[in-house]
Automatic annotation (TrEMBL):
Keywords: DNA-directed RNA polymerase, Nucleus, Transcription. One of its GO terms (cellular component) is cytoplasm. This is DNA-directed RNA polymerase III subunit RPC6. It comes from the Eukaryota. DNA-dependent RNA polymerase catalyzes the transcription of DNA into RNA using the four ribonucleoside triphosphates as substrates. Specific peripheric component of RNA polymerase III which synthesizes small RNAs, such as 5S rRNA and tRNAs. Belongs to the eukaryotic RPC34/RPC39 RNA polymerase subunit family. It comes from Bimuria novae-zelandiae CBS 107.79. SUPFAM superfamilies: Winged helix' DNA-binding domain.
């Protein structure tokens, strides 16, 4: 049939192409407009062409032959349901909405929806916005993010594996932008900072009259090897924003087939803030949280004896001994004889 020649010409175009009458005429398959109308009518009856409207003008889209063959075998009510589901595209349509649009009884709608699913023409998906609703869309279509969820979700559930990978990638990117590696013995004190800190410490120590009010002894930190680098914040960094990080994640195509919006990235970044990986600098900018070095304690300076005001009176025998010292017992998490 000559109509099939027109179909074959249309099939050479990219999938999803919309054809207007001028496009079909330019293919020069039909000898005149009258013959073209007959061809289009024949293909439409066989469901090989899907009629559409665009700005008040009639146009058509091609259907695969296997789908068209299945549509030919449908009863009218099935075909009506399929048409409404087709019109909904990736947003899908709720079964109760189908009932309202078609005026079919609910048992009939349910029956034919199951039939269309069995014939692999449609699919049912759960909406993340309304989990108690089943949304129906064509089998070959992928549900929109409003239905299936954002890039961090898969079939309505959070994709923990993907989220873990994304947090690692974003964490590394933010660290590169906001931190720099320096030698282990590097410090960012200025001379003024150091003098002010020493003066403040002297005032604190000299003003303490009793051991109970003394500042806790700082744990001993052995000097780090210069060859062992550490992370410090950059002095004047360009802090990454929600928008820049979303653009970066899209550019490396980590989430194939998905686009990360600013709202999606904000959701991920807020989770990383709660986890203590990142911290907010402003409402939309972030930087890496520097982890404190592992504490190494030294008993000689951590023990209360080091700054005890009655150290000279303490001995094996006498009013103050290690056995009766309440501070020593507290440090060892035991009970002194005096307390008994």
């Amino acid at each position: 049939m000559r109509a099939d020649l027109l179909y074959d010409e249309c099939a050479k175009r990219p999938e999803g192409t919309t054809f207007f009458q001028r496009d079909l005429t330019s293919m020069q398959v039909a000898n005149d407009v009258e013959e073209l109308v007959k061809m289009v009518s024949d293909l439409s009856k066989r469901h090989l062409l899907q009629p559409l409207q665009f700005d008040g003008e009639t146009c058509w889209k091609l259907r695969p032959r296997d789908i068209a063959d299945k549509l030919l075998k449908l009863v009218p009510d099935e075909r009506l349901l399929y048409q409404y589901i087709d019109n909904a595209q990736t947003e899908g349509v709720w079964s109760k909405a189908l009932r309202a649009k078609t005026n079919l009884a609910q048992p009939t709608v349910t029956k034919y929806l199951k039939s269309l699913e069995a014939k692999d023409l449609i699919q049912a998906v759960m909406s993340v916005k309304t989990p108690n609703r089943k949304m129906y869309l064509l089998k070959h279509l992928k549900p929109s993010e409003d239905v299936a969820g954002g890039p961090w979700q898969n079939e309505g559930d959070f994709d923990t594996a993907l989220i873990d990978i994304a947090t690692q990638v974003i964490g590394k990117k933010v660290q590169e932008e906001t931190c720099i590696k320096v030698a282990g013995n590097w410090n960012n004190y200025t001379s003024a900072d150091r003098q002010a800190a020493i003066a403040h410490k002297k005032v604190q120590v000299k003003g303490v009259p009793d051991i109970e009010e003394l500042l806790p002894v700082q744990p001993y930190h052995p000097p780090m090897e210069p060859a062992q680098p550490k992370l410090v914040h950059r002095t004047n960094p360009f802090y990454p924003t929600t928008a820049s990080l979303a653009e970066y994640l899209n550019s490396i195509q980590l989430l194939r087939g998905k686009t990360v919006r600013e709202s999606d990235m904000e959701q991920l970044l807020e989770m990383m803030v709660l986890d203590g990986t990142l911290e907010k600098v402003t409402a939309t900018t972030y930087r890496t949280v520097l982890q404190p070095p592992k504490q190494v304690y030294n008993g000689f300076v951590d023990a209360p004896c080091g700054n005890c005001p009655v150290f000279d009176l303490c001995s094996d025998e006498g009013p103050i001994t290690a056995r009766t010292c309440v501070y020593f017992a507290e440090w060892l998490e035991t009970t002194s004889e005096e307390a008994n």
